[in-house]
Amino acid sequence: DAGVIQSPRHEVTEMGQEVTLRCKPISGHDYLFWYRQTMMRGLELLIYFNNNVPIDDSGMPEDRFSAKMPNASFSTLKIQPSEPRDSAVYFCASSFSGTGGSNEQFFGPGTRLTVL
Amino acid sequence: AQSVTQLGSHVSVSEGALVLLRCNYSSSVPPYLFWYVQYPNQGLQLLLKYTSAATLVKGINGFEAEFKKSETSFHLTKPSAHMSDAAEYFCAVINQAGTALIFGKGTTLSVSS
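ok -> structure tokens follow
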């Protein structure tokens, strides 16, 4: 398996622009998670989905952030409009909760976002 | 509520020395506990996990952790540090619903020659 795939790996944009981050989870996994990592705040859980349905979005910082999962193999995290304080590394992770699963999360390589 | 506390944001050891990274947890249900490692510019990778079986858990790269209920601890150890162990290490506990992980703030391990 190719693991969790994220794109782009790096994104540089200007303040006010829309940013869309993409994630393809591991096939067969039923949970998908979006995290943000910064030096100041560490690793923060933004939102997670179960079977494509958002379960907990309490970590989403503002209405400028939105996430969707239209099918089991694709999710997006969108920031509109972007601000310099959104600069961070965004990780996607997936896990399997079925028989034999221990909710171990598999992480993607991350998207490094820089907002100028 | 579930939480983890990692004691020491930065630990420095010499190559060949014992590595000890501390993690204490709080959980209202029998916990599932995890240690993840993050190498520079990479995502997190699972080192080991405790899921209520053996209290001494062995992971990859020579790491192990011992679950101690009486101390609510899950410290990570490695007998002999290698330069390649330099990374950030995260302890995590599963949430009460059993659906998501709650991560500690991380400990950066530096290894000097």
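DSSP finds no helices and eleven strands in chain B.
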